Amino acid sequence: MILKLQEGSGTLTERLYLTLKEWILHEAKPGERLPSIRTLAAENRISRTTVEAAYSQLYAEGYIESRPRSGYFVAVDLLAVNRGAKKEPEAEERPIGNGRVRYDFFPARLSPEIFPVKTWRRLNARALREDLDFGAYPDGQGEAGFREQIASYLNRIRGTRCRADQIVVCSGFIDAMGLAAELMEARDHPFAMEWPGYRLAERVMGEHGYRTLHIPVDSQGIDPQRLEATEAGSLYLTPSHQYPTGATLPVARRQALLEWARRQESWIIEDDYDSELNYTHRPIPAMQGLEGGERVLYLGTFSKSLSPAIRVAYLVLPEPLMERYRRSSHAHFARVSLPVQRTLELFMAEGHWERHLRRVRTLNRRRHDRMLAALRRELGDRIEILTQGGGWRSSCGLPTVAI
Ligand SMILES: Cc1ncc(COP(=O)(O)O)c(C=O)c1O
Predict the structure, then answer these.
(1) Cα separation of 73 and 65, whole Å?
(2) Domain count, the chain
(3) Which residue of 173, 239, 287, 329 has the fewest C-beta atoms within 10 A of its own C-beta?
(4) Model-level pTM?
(5) Mind listing the pLDDT tens digit for each residue in 175-185?
(6) What is the predicted pLDDT for the residue at 270?
(7) Which residue has the higher pLDDT, 79 or 63?
(8) Of all atoms in ligand 1, which is nearest to the CA of residue 173?
(9) Range of the domain at 366
(10) Pocket of ligand 1 (CB under 6 A)
């Protein structure tokens, strides 16, 4: 493969990386093998270190995959979307549902290419071949090995401080939130939530006998001072990526909220629903892991990056609530089926989860850039884009967008 390296002022590695990326996006076939590092270096008279560095960057961003003892290959899933980049992207523009929707911006939907179906099928088959005991009820809290994987991922990547025995595997948000509502036993005090916010939180808490207070958000998220005057016994918020404004709550506010919870002996439910999807900067660590995070219930889900169809979420409980949980009827039955838990455990243990996240970020970054270009092209100075990569702030009169 003789390359015509892209022009530009970057280093040789950067130019090689860009050249290969262009080739991947517009010419290569899904799963196509890349030349070995040695061959590409020799044919183009560049050093192996340069080729290795370019490959490693492409790998980190999810453009290529590595298969043991076989070499590097163009990422299969990525191509399904990227191939359309020069023409009209078919996968994203086809009519869906009843056919009346041409462009679907519903935030809680993933495009079907995201799900790594082949890997899932293989691991699912393996999970079923293992000795799953189909005659017994599985662990009510969730499979121990699966909880270990979640704890290790959260502590490493999200900065939480948790053990596997503090985790309860749940079947999605409503299930997890309902469990939190029961365990907090804080119905005598109002339930506070950021506003605008995730309406379903209010609904679930209402169904469990809680009265809701709305606490307004500003450009940085919820303002702790607004909470001071209330008698709230619990608080729900999405600090990493406020739903729906996209704001990220600064550390000082997080600390003030933790201090509020300590003083009032209130509980905080931190919904970290999509922080793994941040693709412009590393998300700031979860509140649960900060000094004073002992009153935080941390809620996570696999719905945003893997699939909302598998219905897997989890709750990390503070120790006192864990004790209540163990004594309650909630501890009896597993909330997610054993084969799904085991498949996901294998998926995480074998490194597919983090590889998958890299691929999803690449895919989203491309869509984000395309959206940004389209908004600029079509609407020009009639709108103001204040933050990118997931974000929004109110502005003086101009319509604003969160992308
Ligand atoms: C703010 C927020 N939290 C959590 C969830 C995850 O819900 P589930 O785990 O039930 O799919 C969503 C889904 O849209 C959401 O928007």
Answers:
(1) 5
(2) 3
(3) 329
(4) 0.74
(5) 999 999 999 99
(6) 98
(7) 63
(8) 10
(9) 362-403
(10) 108, 172-173, 198, 238, 243, 271, 273, 301, 303, 308, 313
